[in-house]
Design a protein that fits this description.
Blueprint (H helix, E strand, L loop, with lengths): L1 E2 L9 H4 L20 H11 L3 E7 L3 E7 L18
Length: 85
């Protein structure tokens, strides 16, 4: 996933990977969130034997890469999913 939002400073990358970790305090925050998304994604990825990568540049955006082992990927049977097109 990649976005071109506010980005995260290199010095803050470890902080945002902690549960509830956020760069700004709740009173000065301009971006909403709980601080759980990135740590949860990393934990789920690693629980499946995968690799989680986070790259970000302040003022330019963020890129998150998730790599899962092939044996953990299950093909979706689209015929069995109602409304899938």
């Amino acid at each position: 996933m990649e976005d071109f939002g506010v980005g995260i400073a290199r010095a803050d990358l470890n902080r945002v990977m902690e549960p509830f970790g956020q760069v700004e305090g709740y009173l000065s925050r301009k971006v909403e969130g709980t601080g759980l998304g990135l740590p949860l994604c990393k934990a789920l990825t690693e629980a499946h034997g995968g690799e989680f990568r986070l790259k970000s540049t302040l003022g330019q955006g963020t890129c998150v890469e998730v790599f899962l082992p092939a044996e953990r990927v299950v093909a979706l049977d689209t015929a069995a999913v109602k409304g899938f097109d």
